[in-house]
Give the backbone structure.
Amino acid sequence: MTRFQVWISAGALLVSSGVLVATSARALRTIEGPPKRSRSSTEGPPTRDAEQGHARELAIHAMQATEESPKDDFLEEHGIATPMPVVAGAIPAHARVRFPSVVLSIPVDLLVIFTIADFDGSRDCSDYYAPDSPWYNVFYGTYGILSHKPDGTWWGYKADGKPDFDEVTRVPELDYNYLTAGQLGCPPEKQKFKVLELKTSKVGAWDRGDVVAQIPSGLHRWEDSFGANPFYYTVFGYPDQKLIGNRESYEPVKMRGQMFFRRLTEVEGDRITMVFGAMCPDTPAGKALLKKIIDPLAPLFHADGG
């Protein structure tokens, strides 16, 4: 499980040891549903717990595989720590994937260290898909952003060193629209990340943004997914179709998040911006979860997340 084929738009990428490398491939057909494992005639029917446990185990192994001997990991090369607390309700593992600028629409290499909701005991998928869960569409973790901007500045910062919040929020926009919903088969016309509110502040060395945004959900009907990335289903699971009810696939969801970012000026040779934070549903339960995530995460980066 150290190598997976994954598709992004018209091209394919190979995930090997947490690095994405472009290669040619045909577009995927419509995802019809999760493949069924063949069973021996001497085996009894699988229990529900066994099936769910297998899906969760696959997700954990898939995440762990991205961390094995990572190549071109610019944070690791510079000795930059990326601590990831395990929050109750999250998968007890995290992924570490680099997206080179050649596959992105912005002039950066992006390193994403993240985790998502754990698997509910009654389903074969993450609560990332569960509309009644505070973990609906939730990520938390870290971005490492290696700037290739022609003007020689760090991503998220202007030439005078002042933070550029519009620029830095293009990364979670890209993440929710293209690197997540898009990889789960969301068509471009529904990839509509939009910042609704933004409050800025400073916390020590960190610039902070408190954001309310509309994002495209990952929840979808199998028949509405086209060109989906099979690697993502090993992490998220296939969405339980009972969850969608009368909702539209990839429905817009209002989220509230906190992000902290700073230039790593202590690093020589590379212009790296570090970002950490989380986004949760803009509901009372989601706001409580956001605090539950940021409270242990912020001190690890010497920032107050209160």
In short: Residues 3-27+48-300 form one domain.
